[in-house]
Amino acid sequence: MSEPFITLYTVDGRANKLVTRRRSKITKEAGPPMSEAMARTVRVETIDEMADLLRNIGEHENALISLGYTPGTEPAEGEKEGSPYTVLSRKELAKRLDLDPDDGEAIAKLHEVDGKLFAVRSKRSMVPGGWMLFDRDITPGMPPHLATMTDDEWLDAMAEMIPGFSDAGLVKLPSTTGRVLVDGEPMEASGSHYFVRVADGDDIERFGAVLLNTAFRYDYQ
Fold first, then answer.
1. How does pLDDT run across 67-115, given as a tens digit for each residue?
2. pTM for this structure?
3. Which residues contact 180 (CB under 8 A, 6 or more apart)?
4. What is the rounded CA–CA span in Å between residue 171 and residue 51?
5. In the predicted model, what is the mean pLDDT of residues 135-153?
6. Cα-to-chain-centroid distance, residue 53
7. Within 10 Å of residue 46's Cβ, how many Cβ atoms?
C-alpha cells in the first residue's frame, strides 16, 4: 500500500482562484504562481482525515495541497506531519543555492543548507502518495448524456468502469465556485473533485490512460 502522504503548502497572500461576481456574471482568476511556499508532508490515512484537512484548507486562502510528496520530508513513524521545508521555483532555487538552472538532476534534489531544507515542486522531485483525485467538470460541447448526469449517475458510471470503485470511500469537494459563500449559501457549481485512497500511487499514470480508453468503450467520452 502506498504511503498516505500529501504535501500541504502555505504562501504569503492568496494561493487559490479568485472568484468574482458582478451582477449575474461570474469570473475566475487563477491563483498566482507559487514562487515560494512553506511546505509540510502530512500523513492522511482515512477519508475522514482527508475531509478534515480539506475543510481546514477551505478556511484559509493561503493554503493548498499536492497529492504527492518530496522524499526525505516524510513524518516520523507515529507522527502526522514532517518538519517544515521551503519550496522555491526552479529559478529561485538555482539562484539561492548557486546551482545551474538547467541541471535538472541537481534542481530536483532535496537540499539542506544551514539545517534548513529546500526543494522545488515538480514531477521529477516528488513521488505519488496514496491518494488520487477525480476531477469532474461540465464543459462546453460535452455530450448531453454526460453533461446532464446527476452525481449518483456519474458515480454509477465510474463504478461500471472501475472494479472496486463502488466499495471505495471517497471525499467529494465542490469545484471552486461551489466553495464560495454568498449570504451564507454556496454559489452554484457544475464540477466536483473526488478524493479516493489508492493502493498504488505509482500506478496512477497508467491507470488514467487505461480509464480513458475504457470510457470510449462504454460511451462515456
1. 999 999 999 999 999 999 999 999 999 999 999 999 999 999 999 999 9
2. 0.87
3. 19, 186, 187
4. 6
5. 89
6. 12
7. 12
Contacts of 154 by beta carbon, 8 Å cutoff, 6+ apart: 136
CA atoms within 13 A on the CB side of 83: 10
Q: Torsions phi, psi of 44, nearest 5?
A: -125, 100
Query: pLDDT at position 37, please?
Result: 96
More confident residue, 127 or 21: 127
Burial bucket for residue 130 (CB in 10 Å: 0-12, 13-18, 19+): buried
Using alpha carbons, select from 8, 2, 6, 3 the residue that is nearest to residue 39: 8
pLDDT tens for 6-19 read 999 999 988 777 77
C-alpha cell at 67: 497529492
Q: Cell digits for 7?
A: 504535501
Please answer whether residues 34 and 65 qualify as being in contact, where contact means their C-beta atoms are separated by less than 8 angstroms. Answer: no
Residue 108 is placed in which grid cell?
530536483
Grid cell, residue 136, equals 469532474
> Is residue 186 scored above 90 in pLDDT?
no
Q: Residue 89 — φ and ψ, nearest 5°?
A: -70, 160
Mean of all residue pLDDT scores within the chain = 89
* Chain position carrying cell 462515456: 220
Is residue 2 within 8 Å of residue 69, measured between CB atoms?
Answer: no
**Orientation angle between helical segments 204-217 and 151-161, nearest 10 degrees:** 100
